[in-house]
Amino acid sequence: MSPADDVAREAAHGAQALAAARALFGLRLFNDALARTYYAAFHFATALLLTEGVEPRRHRSLPGLLASHLGGAGFDASDAARLGRLSTYRDMADYERAFDATEGLVQEALADAETFIAKAERCLRDRGFEVVPQR
């Protein structure tokens, strides 16, 4: 598999995760929607990093890797913070027994993910990668 195939596969996984997050939100399965929302952004961030020849090994390293390797492409501390928030929400939704996500929190998380993904799609296209958004 070529690096371009890997990038396309990550972007496709991200689009699928975003579609799943929206569907779960519609079903009012808020904790599950939060987890898929994070993975949507995670896959797009991974796709971006692959264009730099970087493959993240840990979820916690993703925001820092994004800021350090893609700053020249317009990704900054606000994007890293967005990813960090989504990761925290996913951890809470998956591992905190007493945590129940609210509709408002999931709406905010989806907005964060959608903002990040739109920027990632533009960057991937600018770098010559085919990205088919699933909206």
How would you characterize this protein structure?
With 135 residues, the protein is mostly helical. It has one domain: Up-down Bundle (Four Helix Bundle (Hemerythrin (Met), subunit A)). Helix content is 73%, strand content 0%. It is built from five helices and no strands. The longest helix has 24 residues, at 3-26. 41% of the residues are buried. The model has no long low-confidence stretch (mean pLDDT 92).
In short:
The protein has 135 residues and is mainly α. The chain is 73% helix and 0% strand.
Number of helical segments with 4 or more residues: 5
> What's the architecture, going by CATH?
Up-down Bundle
CATH class: Mainly Alpha
Which shape, going by the Cα principal axes? globular
Q: How many distinct beta strands?
A: 0
**N to C succession of SSEs:** HHHHH
Report the major sheet.
none
- Named CATH topology: Four Helix Bundle (Hemerythrin (Met), subunit A)
What's the rounded overall pLDDT mean? 92
Q: Give the helix proportion (percent range).
A: over 70%
Computed over alpha carbons, the radius of gyration is 14 Å
Proportion of residues in extended strands: under 5%
Structural class: mainly alpha
Low-confidence stretches: none
Q: CATH-wise, what's the superfamily?
A: Nucleotidyltransferases  domain 2
- Count of spatially separate domains: 1
How far the N terminus sits from the C terminus, by CA atoms, comes to 27 Å
